[in-house]
Design a protein that fits this description.
This protein has 7 helices and no strands. It is mainly alpha-helical. Helix 4 packs across helix 7 and helix 5 packs across helix 7.
Amino acid sequence: MDQRSSEIQQWIEDYSVALLQRAIFLLSDRREAEDIVQDVFVAAFEAYPSFKGDSKPKTWLMRILQNKVADFYRKKYRHTGMISLDHFFDDSGSWKSTDLLEPWEASESNLLDDLAFRAKLDECLTALPPKCLIPVKLYYLESKKADLVCQEAGITTTSLWKILQRSRMQLRECLEFNWFRKHD
């Protein structure tokens, strides 16, 4: 076994779990995450001669993972159908419900510390259409700047703000009906 093969094999043993956890977080799909991690190691093997050791191997592999995930989202985003917001609007384009959403009571504890709430939030996020989920994860969960989200998702800034606004409405509605009304 040559040096490249043995070093990549060691990296697989050392960093597979961390890369897989990160990929699952970014993709919300274990099967897709496993495929992406495999692609990371294939890319690392092919690009090994360009690895100069200026960074730690884990850092280099995480950067490859980020690029693979961005490519995945670009491809998926461009090939996904239209976002359906039919549950918000009637046939004439008017709001179906003129009711204002009920205000949420501020609780003593931070909701993000509540594991049940976090599970429900994750369910609501997963229920978003892929065209919404991708920018929401990049912008809110990854804390990426708008221009970088637009670049990675292949959308315009105007589209990003519309997608984020619609996503917030859908998340608010999902949490309203699946958490706050059940816990009053």
